[in-house]
Every structure is written in structure tokens, then in C-alpha cells.
Write a structure and sequence with these properties.
The chain is mainly α and 86 residues long. The chain has a domain of 51 residues: Orthogonal Bundle (Arc Repressor Mutant, subunit A), CATH 1.10.10. It is 49% helix and 12% strand. The chain has a three-stranded antiparallel β-sheet. Helix 2 packs across helix 3.
Length: 86
Amino acid sequence: MIGALTLTIAENVMDTFLDVQQLSKLLSVRPMTLYGWVHDGLIPHVKLGRLVRFSQNDIQEWLNKRKKQGRARRVVEIAEPARAPS
């Protein structure tokens, strides 16, 4: 168990953390929106006392889970006008 904990800590140390301002710019949302998501438990985060930080790896995984495929566009075939008999 200790080995797994050490590995997890070592992996997280190599991770880059973003603050609220950085992530709000990256996601194009207001900082208060991020605080709301943190409060509601909707976004992965780390609390260090009163500070909130976001792991770039966790945020990337979170975004990938929410990625939606676009709808296939309907192909509309246009028939050529009928020619008058000559």
C-alpha cells in the first residue's frame, strides 16, 4: 500500500497545477463559475487550505469524458429537373 501511495504522490508532483484564474482563461468561463463547480463537486480539484488548484491531467481527462461527437449531417440529394421531350 505504501508503494502505491508513493507512486501516486510522485506522479502528482510531475503534474502541472493551474489556479482559478489560469483555468478560467483556458476554459473561457468566469472564475465564479469555477468556484461554483468546485462547491458542487462537478470539477476535479485540490484544496490547499483556502487555495483551489486544478491538475492539468485531471482537467484533460474530465474534458475528454465530456467530449461529444458531432451529429452526422444529413445528405440531401437534389434531383435534376426533368427534361422536356424533344
